[in-house]
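Quick question, first post here. What does this chain look like in 3D?
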Amino acid sequence: MFKDIIVGVTPSGVDACAVEAAVNFAKKFESKLYLVHVAGMEQGWGSIETLEASGETARLEARIREMYAPLLTELPNASVQVVAGIPHSELLRLARKKDTDLVVMGPHTKEYEEKRAQMWGMAGSTLERVSQKARCPVMIVHQAVECKDPAFSNILVATDFSEQSECAVSYGGQMVRQYKARLTLMNVCETATDSPEGRAEIKGRLQKEYGDRLQGIEECVYEGCFGRPAMEILNKAKQIGADLIIMAHHSKADDPEEAFLGSTVVQVSVNAPCPTMSVNRHFDLRCGLMYDQTGQVVEVSATA
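> Answer (accepted):
Ran it through. Tokens below.
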């Protein structure tokens, strides 16, 4: 399903859960795996241009290889790359160059991990910038992920009816069909008071907007909620035992930079009981099935 996977790593080891999840996916789907660390931030911006010449990048690569050697024993073709530059720019550049199917990231820094409960998303962080601008889905993992078969059986997709959310719902429908999973599609309203009539109205709109593209999914539940989006999404994920949350990063924000200020996807991802996947553009699974813009299967390849 995932042909090429990039996982962002740091020498601190704070991304260990993300690396382990990426390794497990790579083994399961026989994917090419790239472990990428972008050096520069820890060493100081003024020294970026001298990192490679000084041998620092080679030392960092050796340290990362040693750190994750036990995980990589079954992936001899995994690539470990250390490059100098601005972290989000280099990760995005490599993802475009390799035409990757998935980018996997952790909280990325110890400071970020320690503050997430209080701050819920740090404006302009590498995590936010990659999840906002990546062309492929970005999976955010901050705790250990169980490697099971099927990989996903209970998927929660959150939408705010924006254009970006259309892509998230479409991708979620593909994932659900691929794994014959249970789908919960939800919307959270912040601007009205909770009531049975209001919930029914949201459910009706969800069915109207997305019902056609989700036809054929055996288990599909529509949920309308009121309150703070991140909190309601987290509560629903725990309530239904979701093993994957899918949503768009910046949703309705007219100015993409405004999306950095506590984006819901980052608030959810660093507190969720399961991985969170950010999808902002239409993207098809590479699994033999072909889909149109509505998420419907249009053909099956000869290798399916």
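The longest helix spans residues 163-179.
The chain has eleven helices and twelve strands.
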